[in-house]
Amino acid sequence: MTFRKISDREIDALCTELREVAFNLWWSWNPAAQQLFHELSPFFWEHSNHNAIEVVNWISGQELRTRLREPEFFARVSNVCGSFRSYMTAKQTWVRKNVPAALKAPVAYFSAEFGLHESLRIYSGGLGILAGDHAKSASDLGLPFVGVTLFYRQGYFQQQISNDGWQTERYPASEPAKLPITLVRNAHGEPVTASVQVGNDAIAFQGWRVAVGRGIVYLLDTDLPQNSQHSRDLTAHVYGGDQWVRIGQEILGTARAA
Fold it and tell me: Whole-prediction pTM value?
């Protein structure tokens, strides 16, 4: 079997497309896309809880281009990227066919947690999984969907059992650069911020954007230098447990009201 020569232009374009796929959680329900990221770095794929962003950040541009010069691998990456483009640009969605009026009325979905993928630890259980399923279903149906939650940088605790049999909790901090999220910026490229008044304090927050297929989920984040450390920690954990940390839910409520 003979293969045509793959041009540098084609490889550069496919590198860009593959990174775009990595930043959209569409790949989390596409087995062929997951297999590609696994093949690029089996170690980082497993070590990062199957995080496509960690894989594309780790692999060098030269190594990726070398892999894409393999005709069989190039073809599979092209097919995955083509499937992603077709999904994102499809015109005849269920909503467009059956309830086109809904296209003019986006759905705002507020939840204390979203279980979108194991590498994005902003959920603890059933409520989050339900919200994540709704986000994915809305995308498949073509329903305009905007989710809003908090950016829990330290997520829900990871359980460990001590030598004497007691549970201990770990809260490893997430690094935004290693997650499928992008900071919300204005037309000038500056981060968009807002604030909520809590008692005598004006607590600032910013937003991060998560692409979930055709839908979007925004993560509100108080970890900003203009806030006190106490306020910066408001959105650190999923369900932190004390009365002050629960104020983080008021920030979500303020976004709902707005």
Answer: 0.87
